[in-house]
Amino acid sequence: MNAQQKWTAYYTILIREVLRFSRIWIQTILPPVITTALYFIIFGNLIGPAIGEMHGFSYMEFIVPGLIMMAVITNSYANVVSSFYGSKFQGNIAEMLVSPVPNWIILAGFVSGGIARGMAVGVAVTLVSLIFSKLYIEHLWVMFTIGLLTSTLFSLAGLINGVYAKSFDDISIVPTFVLTPLTYLGGVFYSITMLPEIWQKISLLNPVLYMVNGFRYGVLGIADLPIWISYLIILGFIFILASFSLYLLNRGIGTRT
Amino acid sequence: MTAALAITALRKTYDNGFTALKGIDLSVQQGDFYALLGANGAGKSTTIGIISSLVNKTSGTVTIFGYDLDTQREQAKAQLGLVPQEFNFNVFEPVGEILINQGGYYGIERTIATERAEKLLKQLGLWDKRKEQARTLSGGMKRRLMIARALIHEPRLLILDEPTAGVDIEIRRSMWEFLTDLNKSGLTIILTTHYLEEAESLCRNIGIIDQGQLIENTSMKSLLGRLDTETYVFDLVKPIEHIEDLGACHFQLRDPTTLEVSYHKQDFSLNQIFAFLNEQGLHVLSMRNKTNRLEQLFIDLVEGNKA
C-alpha cells in the first residue's frame, strides 16, 4: 500500500469508530455527562462548602480537572475495548485482517477512535462544569496535551484488554477492579498532600495521579508534583503499551488462530 | 503462466496438538473455477484460513498470483477476496457502509468505493437495502452482502467457503449465474460447498481434502469419468406390475409407475435400455439421475482413504 492508501485505510477505521459511538450517543456520551454532573452537585455543591478551600480554590473548582480527566480516561478505554472486542465477537475484525492494511494502522485507527470519544466526552463534561463553576485555563497547551496523551494511553490499554478478552465479562473486569480504583485514588477528589506520608509515597505508584496532576496544572496552575514528571510517565507508558499492542497484533494473539 | 494460488507442503498443527493439515500441495491456475471439497473437519477451512491470513500456518508456503504470503504480504492480500462460511460483518452497520469501509481497508478512496458499492449492490439485488442495518437482512441477502464485500476491491482470486449454505433454490441459482459470469470475466474462483451438485455444475477442476491431506486433485470431467455405474429413475406413462432384468442391467420397481435402472456404462447404453423398454411396450414420461454422480465419487474416495 502506498502512503495515500494507508491514509485512506486509517481514515476509514477512524470514521467507522466515530460513527459507531456517535450513533449510540445515549449509551456513550450522555451517561458520563450525567454522572459527572451528579459529582458536581453532590461533592461540589453539597459537600464542597464543608470541606473549604484547597490550594486556594473552592472544592468545586479543585475537582473539576480531576472529573474531566476521569471521564476522558474511562471513555477512551471503554470505547476501544468494547469496539475491538465487539469486532472479535462478531467476526468483523477479519475484514481488516484479510486486507493489506498494516497492523500499525489498525492500531492507530482504533486508538484514534478512543481518543475521539475521550475528547468528545471531555469537552461535554467541561461544558457541564461551567454550570457549576468558573473554568480556569492557566496553561491551555498543557491542559490539551495532557488530555490528549492520557486519552491515547488509555485507548492503548483498552485495545490490549480487547485483544485478550474472551467474553463480555473480560471487558468489564479491568475497568471495574483496576481502572476505577486507580482513578478514584489518583487525586481526583483530593490533593495527595492531605495524605499521611506513607500514603503519599504509595500514591506515587499510581500512574493516574500524574495525569490528574498534569491536567490540574493546566487548568488551575497548581500541582502536587513537577509537571515534567507527568509528561515523562505518560509518554513512557504510551511507548510501552503501543509497542506491546503492536506485538500482539503482529503475532495475531487474540485475533488469529 | 503464474498460478493464481500455489500452496506447497502446507502444514498446520494447533496448540492442542491436533494436526489439521499434513503437508498440502495445491496449484490453482488463473481463470479456473475450482472446487475444494471435504467432509466437516477435513481441513478445508483451515486451508482457507491460512490463505486469507486468519490462521497462522505451522510450515509451508502460499503464493497468490506469485506474491508470497510471508514476504509480500500486502501484495498477496490485495489479490484475494474472501467470502467466509459464517456471517462476519458488523450487524449494526448499514449495508452500504460495510462495503465502503471494506474498500477503505484496501486503500480505496471513499468516492470510488461508493461507486463500486452501488454497482455491486445493484447486481446482487441489495441496492434497496443499502441504508438498512445488516441485521435486518434475510439469510440469502446476508450471503450476497458477503459476496459484494469480497468483490469491492476487485480481487483476482475469490474464495467462497460454502456461499450458498441455507440459501433457497431460487437465490442459489441466481448466485450460480453471478459467479459463472464473474469467472467468465477472468476472475479465478475457489469454492467449497457441501452441495456437490453445485460443485459439479460450476467447477472445472476439483480437489478433495480428507484428514488434512489432498487425496484428489484433477479435472471434474476426469473425476466423473471414473464413475462406471449409472442409476436412472424413469417415470412411466402406464403402471406395470413386474419387469425382468436385461442381463446385467438391473430393474427395480419403486411403485407401479416409477422404475429404477442400474447398469455399467461399459456394458450398456441408454439406447439399448430404451429399445428394451419399447419391446416391453413401456413408454417413459421423464427420467432423472437417482443420485448425484459427484456425491457417489466423493463418498467412494473418502471411504477409500479411510481404509
Question: Could you walk me through the main structural features you see in this protein, from its secondary elements to its overall organization?
Answer:
The complex is a heterodimer of chains A (257) and B (307). Chain A is an all-alpha fold and 257 residues long. Chain A has one domain. Chain A has helices at 3-23, 25-28, 30-51, 59-90, 93-97, 103-132, 140-164, 170-184, 197-203, 207-220, 227-251. In chain A, α1 (3-23) packs across α6 and α7 (140-164) packs parallel to α11. The longest helix of chain A is centred in the first third of the chain and has 32 residues, at 59-90. Chain A is elongated and about 60 Å long. The mean pLDDT of chain A is 91. Chain B has 307 residues and is an alpha/beta fold. Chain B folds into 2 domains: 5-224, P-loop containing nucleotide triphosphate hydrolases (Rossmann fold, 3-Layer(aba) Sandwich); 228-306, Alpha-L RNA-binding motif (Alpha-Beta Plaits), CATH 3.30.70. Chain B is built from 10 helices and 14 strands. In chain B, the strands form 3 sheets. In chain B, strands 6-7-8-3-9-10 form a 6-stranded mixed beta sheet, sandwiched between helices. In chain B, strands 2-1-4-5 form a 4-stranded antiparallel beta sheet. In chain B, a hairpin with a 2-residue loop joins β4 (59-64) and β5 (67-68). Chain B is globular, with a radius of gyration of 23 Å. The model of chain B has no long low-confidence stretch (mean pLDDT 88). At the A-B interface, α1, α4 and α5 of A face α2 and α3 of B.
